[in-house]
Amino acid sequence: MTRPYQFDSAKSMRRPAVRPGTHWLRARAMALGLRARAVALGLRARAVALGLRARAVALVWAPGLALMVQGCGGVPAGQVEAHVNGREISDRAVAAELAAANLPDNDPAAQHLALDKIIARYLLIEEAQRQGIDKSPDFLAFRDRAQDLVLADMMVRRWAAALPAPAPADIDRYVAANPFRFDRRAFVQVEEIEAPAGSASIKDLAPLHAMDAIEALLRAHHAEFRRVSQVLDTALIDPAMARQLASAPPGEPVVFAGAPGKAAGSTGGSLRVMAVVRSDPAPIAADMRTALAADALRQTLIAQKLAGLKAGARIALRADLQPGAPGPK
Prior knowledge:
Largest sheet: 4 strands, antiparallel
Structural class: alpha+beta
Distance between the termini: 72 Å
Number of domains: 4
């Protein structure tokens, strides 16, 4: 950077050692000219400094991340909202970020937040690539899984978009067939004991009518178990389990012992014993019932489509993972 001219007024204004005349006038004019040049250079340097400062302020965007973007190939415009070390951030990328975070797309604060997250992610990606993380086996496995999840989700969305709206009669039948998800829905506080399948037989458990007695039996069998208290939403558990809990007297143990592969809310191959502590009714409001039932019917149809794909696929399991096998050792 060129250093501005430093003007020494005392030295430059000293009267030359010549008699007054043209030589003195010429020296005076030269001194004034040098001073004017110094002032001009100083003003120019100040203007350049101010210009660089203004450019830096314009390029720094910091709702949560201060970033100086340099050498990015021009000022972002059009559908490009920002550059990060030459990589563009488009309107579509910001819109996808807003949708993933369930943020409104017309809120400037939300848009800045989404842009900030993308900038941070791009910088982390660059650093990970510099360190070779993108070549590691762990990254490749996670990348393949993420891609699979996105593709599978998009397929389900396409199926759902193509399904016709359920008929009112179908919705009414579904609501009537699933009372514990709608009219008889409740939050049930239970005390539960869970142990590995085979820890005790149904015959041994049948005469016991208290959770303490069941715990004592498991201890006598030296079985591992856990005893917890939790709240179950009958709309989210297996309908058969909800029905059994609703019919059991308070405090009476209800034994669930099933095989692996049952639906969500079933025993999943373990021994589970529950006793109802209290039940708080929470029926679904009438204005929400239709939408929830319609969505459940769509999910049922999508599950049927997936079952059809599974039935037509060639699926081979390792010997220790076959149905009925003891499992991996």
